[in-house]
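re: that chain from earlier
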Amino acid sequence: MSTPASLYDEAVKIYESGDVEKAVEKLNEALALDDNYVLAHSASAVYNQKLGRFDEAIAHATKVTELEPDDKFSFLQLSVICQRCGRIAEAEDALAKSNSMN
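^ sequence. v structure.
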């Protein structure tokens, strides 16, 4: 039986082979097993942004900040995703949050 971690690893390999769509599908399988699997949400944010699915990308990046509220990098990633999705005000807010953390 597959685990969220093994499905995540498969998704990364698929992504590296160039099939971003299939990588997202594999990450969705991982999240169906464990919706709190941070690595899958983090990768989903990046992959969905690359596919132009900006709302989904931001939703996954936001979920990472909810699961890891004390992790400065989580907010930095949210800032980058928002910036790449053209949501500058949200990007600046996330960057400010990241910068305010120790």
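Residues 20-33 form the longest helix (14 residues).
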